[in-house]
Amino acid sequence: MPKNPLTTILEANKFNRTNYNDRLRHLRIFLDFENQTYVLDRSLPKALPEWSTFEERFMFEKWHEDNRQVRNIVLASMTNDIQKQYDRHDDVQSIMLRMSQVYVVLVRHIRYAVSKAFFGANMIEWSSVQEHGVKILSLVEKLKDLKADLEKKSYIDEILQSLPPSKLFEK
After folding, report:
1. Is residue 152 part of a domain?
2. Taking 60 as the threshold, does the pLDDT of residue 1 lie above it?
3. What is the number of domains present in the chain?
4. CA–CA distance from 12 to each of 6, 8, 15, 124 (Å)?
5. 10: number of CA atoms within 13 Å, CB side?
6. What's the CA gap between 35 and 39, in Å, rounded?
7. Which domain holds residue 69?
8. What is the mean pLDDT of the chain?
9. Which of 55, 129, 139, 166 supports an S-S bond with 118, CB 3.0-4.6 Å?
10. Which Pfam families match (predicted)?
11. 137 contacts 97 by C-beta, under 8 angstroms
12. For the chain, what is the HEC assignment?
């Protein structure tokens, strides 16, 4: 397979347990460019009947070749410790299924923890507004990265609620 210009996206954003959704989106973009997304969405055929046509045999072989290529791309775009957990899987769909079972839950837990920190954040009276602002903005960015679908007004309301009364009416 010739070098795909989108390969740099995969190389720059290796899967590291916390970026499953971003990783899957990048992989789908890459595979769509190569016309190989079908190996993620449909099961790999295990056997071909003896009476199959030339075209069916060709498609069967192409499917297996695409599966091998995509499997290697997926494995190569993981950190080494994660790669070792999945390198025994033969088909890419089983790798992706297992990853979704493990890491979608992890992302949900991370989103919960960040949401809890954001909604529970309160600035202590007489502490630095700047430090509090930096902390809150970093939590907002994390929530956006984790696809926590909050409206802009909700962020603003929560930030204002986190301030002590003495800071709300300062000039």
Report:
1. no
2. no
3. 1
4. 10, 6, 10, 39
5. 19
6. 10
7. 1-100
8. 86
9. 139
10. Retrotran_gag_2
11. no
12. CCCCCCHHHHHHCCECCCCHHHHHHHHHHHHHHCCCCHHHHCCCCCCCCCCCCHHHHHHHHHHHHHHHHHHHHHHHCECHHHHHHHCCCCCHHHHHHHHHHHHHHHHHHHHHHHHHHHHHCCCCCCCCHHHHHHHHHHHHHHHHHCCCCCCHHHHHHHHHHHCCHHHHCCC
Tokens standing for residue 80 = 């080494």
How many alpha carbons lie under 13 Å from residue 48 in its C-beta half-sphere?
15
Average pLDDT value for residue range 87-97:
92
Burial call 51-84: b when 16+ CB within 10 Å, e when fewer: eeeeeeeeebeebbebbebbbebbbebbeeebee
Per the domain annotation, does 126 fall within a domain? no
Q: Model-level pTM?
A: 0.62
> Would 6 be classed as within a structural domain?
yes
Q: Using CA atoms, how far apart are residues 11 and 76, in angstroms rounded to an integer?
A: 8
